[in-house]
Amino acid sequence: ADLASLGRGYTVMGVYDPSRGTNSIIVLDPTGKKRMTIDSIRFPTHATMLRRDRLLVADMNSNRVVEVDGKGKVLWTKNCNQPMAAHRLRNGSTFIVTRNQLLVLDRSGKEVRKIDRPGYDIMSAYLFDDGTISLLTQSQYYRFDKDNRETK
């Protein structure tokens, strides 16, 4: 399993089938029963449950973040270069981590915050409730305040 995350008791897994050369996202309910299989994502690097019937998925090879329903139908898309992770925030905004950029989109999909990196060195990032961001690159750790000023 490439992906494994728990949310609301559901388990989201990314599975690569080398015999077919395909990726799938499988969702299990709290009892372990398979609830969804999504085969429409080329290379999922991160997926989270939004509701029992929706997923937010970073699809790196397709250069997009998508919200899909339980049948894999795309309900929302944001094109971005090599997304690694995406999180829907409590206020409905979306935080996207790419290899060279951090983005926050409001509910309508409008970009409201952005931090660019000169290289493709981002490994991980987290947006805290107070608006601060932790960023881990291949060689350093950074901390940004809510106004994108580097503080550490």
| Average pLDDT over all residues | 89
Number of strands: 15
For the termini, the CA-CA separation is: 34 Å
Radius of gyration: 16 Å
Overall SS class: mainly beta
Shape: globular
Number of helices: 0
Produce the secondary structure layout.
Elements: E1 3-7, E2 10-17, E3 22-28, E4 34-38, E5 44-51, E6 54-59, E7 64-69, E8 74-79, E9 83-88, E10 94-98, E11 101-105, E12 111-116, E13 122-127, E14 133-137, E15 141-144
Antiparallel strand pairs: 1-2, 2-3, 3-4, 5-6, 6-7, 7-8, 9-10, 10-11, 11-12, 13-14, 14-15
Describe this structure in words.
- There is one protein chain.
- The protein is mainly β and 152 residues long.
- 0% of the residues lie in helices and 58% in strands.
- The strands form 4 sheets. It has a 4-stranded antiparallel β-sheet with strand order 1-2-3-4, with no helix packed on it. A 4-stranded antiparallel β-sheet has the order 5-6-7-8, with no helix packed on it. Strands 9-10-11-12 form a 4-stranded antiparallel β-sheet, with no helix packed on it.
- It is globular, with a radius of gyration of 16 Å.
- The relative contact order is 0.10.
- The N terminus is likely disordered.
